[in-house]
Specification:
By secondary structure, this protein is α+β, with helices and mostly antiparallel strands. It has one domain. Helix 2 packs antiparallel against helix 4. The longest helix is centred in the middle third of the chain and has 17 residues. The N and C termini lie far apart (41 Å).
């Protein structure tokens, strides 16, 4: 996941917040452990949460040192291992990467190899064993830690936005142009 930390904005009276509640994500990231840095251990949309937050006991036993963020903006930019495509073919009910696939993968972490269907498990295991055998890393490879989800939090000076409509894309284009201070000319010359 590609995330950007949003600066706290003090809004004027009557001003609409930058994001609606249905666009706010609650993301728990493991912090402070070198090999686990920014591992995503919990994902939930704020609109689905009432006043109580459910955290599974199994998660607390395995990773008790995490920070819950509501100020991270999801750029909808993801990298997946190839076996995730096989998982999508098996799990026909997964219709959305953001709403279905990411929470599914995050929930399957820390459950060992049995968390995945056999056909997907064999492909994922063979690739990870090959990668571990070729790795020069001092980190130990845990074959039970098959499903792992990480996030990259952009530095504060990085630009990250998403556009799902043409007007939003145009507004984003204008914002990028104004940030870079590029002069637009009416004609193109060679």
């Amino acid at each position: 996941m590609l995330l950007r930390q949003e600066a706290p904005v003090s809004k004027a009276k009557g001003e609409k917040p930058r994001r609606d509640k249905d666009m706010t994500d609650c993301i728990a990231l493991v912090e402070g452990q070198r090999d686990e840095e920014n591992r995503v251990v919990l994902v939930s949309q704020a609109v689905h949460m009432n006043e109580d937050l459910y955290v599974p006991k199994s998660l607390l036993k395995r990773r008790s040192n995490f920070v819950l963020h509501t100020d991270l903006y999801d750029g909808h930019f993801y990298f997946f291992s190839h076996w995730v495509l096989d998982l999508l073919q098996e799990k026909k009910y997964i219709a959305s990467i953001k709403a279905d696939l990411i929470p599914h993968l995050v929930r399957r972490q820390f459950r060992g190899k049995e968390a995945l269907p056999e056909s997907v498990r064999s492909k994922a295991t063979s690739k990870q064993e090959l990668a571990a055998s070729l790795s020069l890393s001092e980190e130990k490879h845990d074959p039970e830690d098959l499903v792992r989800c990480f996030a990259y939090v952009l530095p504060s000076n990085a630009y990250c936005e998403r556009a799902d409509t043409i007007p939003a894309y145009r507004a984003m284009d204008e914002e990028v142009g104004s940030r870079l201070r590029i002069k637009r000319s009416g004609s193109v010359s060679n």
